[in-house]
């Protein structure tokens, strides 16, 4: 669903004349990665010929055509793909975090909706996955399955290996997030404690013909990492997973069932995840239809229309969130004294991490809000500048906020309310800080997910 610009308004964006321009730029970034539009661009149909990634697939060659959508963009992706093959559609399933706005009445009988949780899987994730695997348990080579994958799929689509309980899985995921592992590291482990990730879903769907249509939420669009690559070959190994655990010294914190399983895999007692050349991947098709670069390009084009001298940063948004905020704020403050008289807009995208440290009970907030909070003190007193963070799915961590707005006046406004940003950083309570200032972005769930954006503005 394309969000209107007005849905991004905050107190600061309402008060300043440039505020509405910024909301149009934010909206444009999301419109550029609208899942339905991306599918329409990537998949074309002429009669009974479906063209995908340069291949022509004759729909009449298949007895059944199914859809399987997994991830936060599951519903809009399923509806768009369903519209494309509606007269051949035999059935399907969607597993997403939100079931709003639902699916058209025309698909109520054919497409089943399932719900799970993110970023920590819950019992619904487990039950929904089991039900979906049961639905797709008797396919043949006469079946075509269009698998629609988007960010969030790793937590939503959950089937742990035998001996690993849901509680064990939840504990492990919580530790991964608290210790600041990046998504590649997390998914390397996830793939090796799952029965469906890391190409294993492809084995479950075999011998059906599958087309994997992927909306990327990982920098560089590595298809084996997006939603933990359920339908593509997995180049990582059990030893790679153990290397991540050693790097962060996690063995003493993880459930024994996970340590035992990974060690058994590294010793060759458990089969590896399927690799390139495995027969289950023969003749299958995978393509990425949109990602963070598209969102940045969409924002860039709109920023130029709004009159800003704009560019995309060559450096990905990564590292510890609060440190990234401080670093980006320093870059922004340098723009204040630059020779350019026109307005400037620098756009960056990626994914930072938050490491929970200290004995204080963590507050509310995610990586986008913590990045913004990390910029507050550095930007204090600087005129005509703004830093804005945006989670493209509309949710930062386990909050209803997509990000926040920071200007040179943010610190002074906070101090008037008795708020010290350093205290809130120590508690990882960025949501409470920006809520008090009425500078949370609250567009609601966006129906897409291609990672995070950060915008640096000089006016």
Strand content: 15-25%
Number of strands: 15
The parts where pLDDT drops under 50 for at least 5 residues are none
Give the C-level CATH assignment of the largest domain: Alpha Beta
* Radius of gyration, in angstroms, nearest whole number: 22 Å
- Give the helix tally: 17
Shape: globular
What summary fits the major beta sheet? Answer: 6 strands, parallel
Output mean pLDDT. Answer: 96
Helix content: 25-40%
CA distance, first residue to last residue: 30 Å
For this structure, the CATH topology of the largest domain is glycerate kinase, domain 1
Notes on the protein architecture:
This protein is an alpha/beta fold and 459 residues long. The protein folds into 2 domains: 5-32 and 293-458, 3-Layer(aba) Sandwich (glycerate kinase, domain 1); 35-159 and 194-236 and 273-290, Glycerate kinase, MOFRL-like N-terminal domain (Rossmann fold, 3-Layer(aba) Sandwich), CATH 3.40.50. It has 17 helices and 15 strands. The strands form 3 sheets. It has a 6-stranded parallel β-sheet, with helices on both faces. α4 (74-84) links the parallel β4 and β5. α2 (19-31) packs antiparallel against α12 (292-305), α3 (35-42) runs parallel beside α4 (74-84) and α14 crosses α17. The chain is globular, with a radius of gyration of 22 Å. The two termini are 30 Å apart. 52% of the residues are buried.
């Amino acid at each position: 669903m394309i969000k209107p610009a007005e849905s991004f308004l905050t107190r600061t964006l309402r008060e300043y004349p440039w505020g509405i321009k910024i909301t149009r730029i934010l909206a444009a970034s999301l419109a550029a990665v609208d899942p339905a539009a991306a599918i329409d661009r990537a998949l074309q149909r002429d009669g009974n010929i479906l063209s995908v990634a340069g291949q022509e697939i004759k729909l009449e060659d298949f007895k059944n055509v199914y859809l399987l959508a997994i991830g936060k963009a599951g519903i809009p992706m399923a509806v768009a793909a369903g519209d494309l093959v509606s007269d051949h559609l035999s059935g399907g399933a969607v597993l997403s975090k939100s079931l709003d706005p639902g699916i058209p009445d025309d698909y109520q009988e054919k497409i089943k909706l399932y719900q799970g949780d993110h970023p920590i899987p819950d019992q619904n994730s487990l039950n929904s996955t089991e039900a979906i695997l049961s639905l797709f348990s008797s396919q043949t080579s006469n079946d075509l399955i269009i698998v629609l994958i988007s960010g969030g799929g790793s937590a939503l689509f959950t089937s742990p290996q035998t001996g690993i309980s849901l509680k064990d899985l939840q504990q492990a995921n919580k530790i991964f997030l608290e210790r600041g592992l990046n998504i590649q590291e997390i998914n390397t482990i996830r793939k090796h404690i799952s029965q469906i990730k890391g190409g294993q879903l492809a084995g479950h769907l075999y011998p059906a013909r599958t087309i994997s249509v992927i909306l990327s939420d990982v920098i560089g669009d590595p298809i084996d990492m997006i939603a933990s690559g359920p339908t593509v070959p997995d180049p990582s190994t059990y030893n790679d997973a153990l290397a991540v655990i050693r790097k962060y010294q996690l063995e003493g914190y993880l459930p024994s069932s996970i340590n035992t399983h990974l060690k058994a895999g590294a010793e060759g007692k458990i089969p590896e995840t399927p690799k390139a050349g495995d027969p289950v991947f023969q003749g299958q098709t995978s393509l990425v239809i949109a990602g963070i670069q598209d969102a940045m390009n969409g924002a860039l084009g709109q920023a130029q229309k709004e009159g800003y001298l704009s560019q995309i940063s060559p450096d990905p948004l990564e590292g510890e969130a609060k440190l990234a905020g401080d670093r980006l704020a320093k870059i922004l403050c340098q723009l204040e004294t630059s020779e350019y008289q026109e307005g400037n807009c620098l756009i960056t995208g990626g994914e930072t991490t938050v490491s929970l440290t200290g004995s204080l009970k963590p507050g509310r907030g995610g990586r986008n809000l913590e990045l913004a909070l990390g910029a507050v003190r550095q930007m204090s007193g600087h005129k005509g500048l703004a830093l804005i963070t945006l989670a493209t799915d509309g949710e930062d961590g386990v909050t209803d906020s997509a990000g926040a707005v920071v200007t040179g006046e943010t610190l002074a406004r906070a101090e008037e309310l008795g708020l010290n940003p350093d205290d809130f950083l120590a508690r990882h309570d960025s949501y409470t800080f920006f809520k008090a200032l009425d500078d949370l972005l609250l567009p609601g769930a966006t129906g897409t997910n291609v990672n995070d954006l950060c915008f640096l503005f000089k006016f």
